[in-house]
Amino acid sequence: MSAGEKAKAKAEQVVGKAIRKAALAVHKDALAAKGAALEARGKMRGAKEGTKDSFKR
Description:
Helix content is 89%, strand content 0%.
C-alpha cells in the first residue's frame, strides 16, 4: 500500500469518527450518518489497498 493512500484512508476514518461523535453530541442525526459514511469509506479504502498489497507479494 502506498503511503499516500494509507494516509488518506486513515484521515477519512479519523475525520469521519470526529464528525460522527460531534454530531451525536448535539443530536444531529443526519450529520452523524454522513460522518459514519465517511468513516466506513476510509475503512473500505484501507481494506482495498491491503488486498492489493497481498497480491503483489
